[in-house]
Amino acid sequence: MLCTQTFKLGRSMTLKKAVVTGGGQGMGRAIALLLAEQGITVVLVGQTASKVERVAEEIKAKGGNAEAYPLDVTNDAGVATFAEWLGDEPVDILVNNAGDWLVEPFESTSNEQLDHILDVNLRAPYVLSRSVLRNLRKSENASIINIGSIVTVESHPGVSAYTAAKVGLRALTNALAAELRPDHIRVVMLSPGPANTPMRWDASPDIDPKMLVEPETIAQVLWTIVSLPPGITIRDVVVLENMNLVMGD
User: Fold this and answer.
1) Domain 2-247 in this protein, CATH class
2) pLDDT tens for residues 126-147?
């Protein structure tokens, strides 16, 4: 009922443009499809051109508006070029969804692996959010949604690098929420439990499917957040299978 009511509210709002990183599959695809259903033009950002182009065509086939922009979010020059491409147009929603996963014991995690996981999961959202800030400031109801992980509230062995990155992203989210409050930009971390995505299956091929949260569910929760009235926000949100939405501090 909550999501249905929020959808009705959201349709009357002035959200027009969203940028979704990692938009070529999994959660990014589901988020992009739902936002497009609400009449929002979605810019799909992803490292693999064919994937984001395919999702853009899928959205257009359903009557929505989408643009595909191939980009490695860890490439600073590429991010700067992307910001120039956006120009001065308002962006209402930035979803920092692009990420990578590493299952590796702490003692055997290489410096190169650590650098990569920190770059894509923590540094890239920092740099991209800063690059798009001028566009977000032009929105009447802007949101930055950082996609986190259950590891920000639960500790698991074998994922030390990934945990460090996502916990750092949680701290960054809260810091930006405080710093951008005067600009009326809400910044929220949305942390799914294990999700039914290609990245999850690649990392955990033997996982019990009953543990997985569907990407469409995560997209619905995200829409609930971004369609809140201007000036209203919430803190960290964790989404778990077979449990109610948990909101923590």
Assistant:
1) alpha beta
2) 999 999 999 999 999 999 999 9
